[in-house]
Protein 1
Amino acid sequence: MKPAKSGIVAIFWGPHSRHTEDIARRLGATPYAVDAMSWSWRKHSWVAPIKYVIQAIRTWAILLRTRPAAVYVIIPPTFSALAVWMYCVIARIPFVMDVHGHSLTSRKWGWTAPLQHFLAHRAVATVVDQRKYVQAFEARGARTVMLERTPVEIPANRLKKLNHPGAFSVLMVNIFGADEPTELVVEAARQLPDVTFFITGEVSKAPEGMVAGAPKNVVFTGYLKGDDYWHNLYSAGAVMTLTTEPYSLVSGGIEAMALGRPNILSRQPVLEEYFTKGTVFVDHSVESLVAGVRAAQADEAALSQQAVQLAAEKRERWDRALRELLGYITDAARTPIALLNEKHRS
C-alpha cells in the first residue's frame, strides 16, 4: 500500500448528507457522498444488494485514489462501515464509525446491531448522538464519543423577518410523516383563531381532506428549501416539531434553537434530555397543544433568550467532543492528521 497523501476522508452512502459535510468541514476532511444509481426503481428492496456492492466498489476506488490517513464513515447503511473497515485493515489506517440512532433501533437496520458492535470494536472510536447509545456500545467495550447534533450557523445578514399575519405565529416543521401528528395541530388551530399556523411539507402528501378542511388560520406552505425555509423559521413566534418516535432528535428543533426561536416539542425522552432551555414540551393531545402554544406566546422573549444560550452551550460541548475525537484519530494515525490536512490543502 502506498503512503497516505491526504488527511481524513468522510464517507456517506447516499446522494447528499449535510451532517457529513458539517463533520468533514470541522475535521478538515474531504467528504464523499457515494451514490449507486439514479434510476427510479433503485429504492426497491431487491435492488439493495446490487446497490451496496456498487457503493462498496466506489468507496474502495475513492480510498485507493485518495489514500487517506484516516476514514470517517457514517451509517446507516451498516455495510458502508463494513466496506471501509475492509480497506482500513489492508491499508493499516484508523477509521471512525458515526452511528445514527435508528441504525440500532429501526426495523430496517436493527438486525445489523451485531455487525455494528463488531465494527465498533475495531474502530478508533464510535460516534453517537445520544446517551443511551453511548451506554449500548460501551457496555460491550467499545470506545465512544458523544457528538450531539450541533446547531447550524446561519449568518445574521442572510436572515430576513417576514410579515406573518396575526398576533402570534407558529411554524410546524413537518413532512406529513407517519410519526407526525399533524391532524392534532390542525384541530388545535381551531381553538386558537388569533394564532397563525404555518405547516411545511409537500401538500400532496397531506392526508385526504386535511388541507380543504383546515381553518383559515392554517397555512400550508408546501416544501420550503434554502432561504425560504430559514426566513420562515426565523420569523415564527415559535417553531413546533412533533414526533411519536421516542428517540428521534428532530432537526426542526435544533434549527429553531440555532436561530434563537422558542421550540414547541413532543414530550419524548431524547428531546427532554437535549432541549433543556427555550422549549415548551407538549403531549399529543389537542388540549396540550393549545396550552403549549399559549405558554410559548406568553414567554416568547424569555424562551428566545434561553434558546440562544442553549445553542452556545451546545456549540461549546460539540467543539470539546470534536477535539477529543480528533485526538483519538491523530493518536491512531501514523502521521499527525493536522500536518496531513495542511499538506492536502496547500
Note: Residues 339-346 have pLDDT under 50 and may be disordered.
Protein 2
Amino acid sequence: MIRVLAFIRRLPGVSRDAFRSHYEEIHVPIALPFLAGTAGYLRHHVREEILGTPGFDCMTRFDYPDAASVRAVFERTEGPQADAIRRDERTFMDKPAIVFFPVEEVPGWGQPGADAERLLVCARRPRTEQAAGFRARLWDRELPALRAAAGPRWCRAWSPPATPERGFDAVLEIAAVGSGEIRRWAQALEAEGASLIAVRVSVHETRMPG
C-alpha cells in the first residue's frame, strides 16, 4: 500500500467552516470520478488548535494499492479532462501552499472508539538532530512515554522516507479522551528543540468502490 498525505490550506477570506463544507459537499463529488483505483480517501479537517499554529486546514490521506495506481490517478487529475477539479480548487484552496509527500506507517496501537477526540500531531526534528535519530527516539522512547502518560486509546504514526522541505518528520493520528496530557507531552518535546503542531480534527472518509 502506498500512502500520501496532503496538507491543504484555505484561501484568505474563506472561513474554516466554509472551507470544510465546500470540500465535503462540492469538491469531493467533483473529484471522485477521477480517483478510480484509489483504495482510501480521508480528510482530517482542523477544528481547534491545541499547540502551535498549523499552516493547513485539512490533512487529506490518499491510499493507493500500488505505484501503477498512483500514476494512473495523477495522470487523470493533471490532464485536461480534470479542468473542473482545478477550477474548483482555486475557489477555496491556497494551491501554492499545498504540501504533500508519501509516508510509511509505524506500528501504533488500539482502536479509535466512538467517544474519543481525534487529534493530529505533526513534528519536525530539532535543527541539530538528524532525521533518522529523531524518528528512532520518537518511536522508541517518546511514543511509549505518551502512551503511558496520556493513555491514548488509539495511535497511528506516519513517517516520510525522507523529510520534505516543507513537510514533517512524523505525523501522529491519535484518538483520546481529552488533550491536556498530549499538549504537555508535545510541549516537553518542544523544550528539547523540536517543533510540534497539535490540532483537534474531524475525520471524513469516502468509501471507494472495490
Note: The CA atoms of residues 38 and 64 lie 5 Å apart.
Protein 3
Amino acid sequence: MASEKYKDYQLVILRHGESEWNKKNLFTGWRDVRLTEQGESEARAAGRTLAEDGFAFDLVHTSLLSRAIKTMWLALEEMDLMWLPVKKHWRLNERHYGRLQGANKLEAVQQFGEAQVKIWRRSYATPPPPVELSSADFPKADRRYADVPESDLPRSESLKDVLARVMPYWEQAILPDLKAGKRVLVVAHGNSLRALLKYLEGVSDEAIVDVDLPTGIPKAYKLNAAFRADDARFLGDPAELERRINVVKAQTKKA
C-alpha cells in the first residue's frame, strides 16, 4: 500500500543510472551502452527509495536501449516487483544526437564553442548535424527497429523532434494505462523524459534549456483531471539530487 504522503502520485519517471558513456562524457544518443557499477548502484537506490516511500506499480514502460532496461530491472528487483508487465518502445529512446554521437562533450565545446554545443544539447528546436543514411548511426540496420518505417527513424533530433515522437506513445500507450487507473513507472532517458516533463509540467520552450534530469533519481507526478502535472517532486536525498544535477550541468563546462 502506498504511503499516505504519495497515495495520489500515480506516475513516476526515472532516468537510467550512469552509463559507461556518461562516465566518459560522450554523446550517447541511440548508441547502446551499458551501465557502470555506479549506474547499477543508482538504479538499485532508486528502487529502494520508491519502496521506502510506499510506491507500488502496475506496469512499466521503457525504451529499447539496454541502459534503461537494466535500470528498470534493478529498480524493480529492489522493490520485489520483477513480475510486473513491461512495455518497451523505440519512441522512449534517447534523443538521436546525429553526428555528435560518440563525440566527447568537452572536445565538442573546444571545436564548436560552448554556446553552440549548449544549443545542440539543450535548446528546444535546434538539432545537431544529421548523420548520412549510409552511416552506422542511422538505425535502419538494427533489427530492434525492423518494423519501424524508415521515414520515422531519426538521423538527428532536437528536443522538439523528441517530443513529437514521444507524444504519440504517451497518448496511445501510457495515457490509456493511467486512465484505466494503473500506477505507471516510465524508465527512459534524459531527453525523452525531458520532453515528457515539458508537456506534463507546461515548461516553456525557453525554460526547458535549463532543465536537467539527474541519473537514477525518481520523479513522482500527481496528475489532474486533464492528466497534466498537479504536483511533481523528486524523491530521495535533496543533497544527492543537487549533486547529480550539477554533474549533468558540468558535462560541457570548460576546465
Note: The mean pLDDT is 93.
Protein 4
Amino acid sequence: MSTETPASPVYSRKKPFPSKLLVNRRLTLDGSEKDTRHFELSLEGSGLVYETGDSLGVVPANCPELVQEIIHALHANGDEIVPGNDGAPKALRQALLTDYQITQPSKQFIQAIVERGGEAASFLRELQDPLRKEDMEDYLWGMEYIDFLVSHQAAGFTAEEFVKLLRKLQPRLYSIASSQKAFPEAVHLTVAIVTYESHGRNRKGVTTTFLADRVDEATRVPVFVHSAKGFRLPEDWDTPIIMVGPGTGVAPFRAFLQ
C-alpha cells in the first residue's frame, strides 16, 4: 500500500487558482482623466511560480448591471435554462455573468440581426457589402449586444437563441509588475481601468472594472501564470540594458527592477 502524499493540485489556464485580492489602490490623482490601479493578489497555497516578464491570466465575471439590462431586453427573467460554455445547462443569468462575452458583438449575432431585424436592420444590411467593410467597422465601434437588442426588438431572440450567438468569455493577460523574489506569496499588477462613453452609453472594460469595482472580501479572482520565455532579463547581470515599454507600460519593468 502506497504511503506517498497526494500531489498538490496544479493550477493552470484550465484550472485557475482562486486568489484573494489583497490591495486595490488608485495611483492616479483625483481628477485625473486616467484611473490606474495597483493590485496585489495572493498566491498563498497555490504553488504558482512566475518569472519577471511573465503575465498573469485573470478570469473575470461580467458586470451584473449589464447582464440585467440584457435579460430585460430579451424579455426574460434570468432563470431560463440555457447551455453554458461547456454545454452543461445553467440559468441564463449565471451564464451571462461567467460564461460568455457580452460586450463586443459576434459576426454570427450581427448576421442574425440582419436576417431577423426587418426594416430596422436595412442600414446594417447595406453595410454587409464587402466594399463597405471599413464603414461596417466604423459603425460597430463602441457598439455592444445591448445596443442591438434594444434597437432591434423585432429580432425576438429567445434566451437560448441568444446565448448560442455569443463567444466564450476569455481570460485577460496582464504583465506582472512584481518579482517573486521580493514577494514570494503574491503577484502585483499595474492596470489602467477602461471606461468610456459611446453612442450615449457608459462602457466598462470587462476585467479592469471587475478588479477595480466588483471584487470584495468574499470574491475570489481566478488566476493563472502565462509564461513569456522570450521576455527575460539577460542571464549575465553585468549586461547593460535599456528598458522600453511602448505597449506594456511600466508594469514589467517594475518587476525587472525588483
Note: Residues 12 and 99 are 18 Å apart (CA to CA).
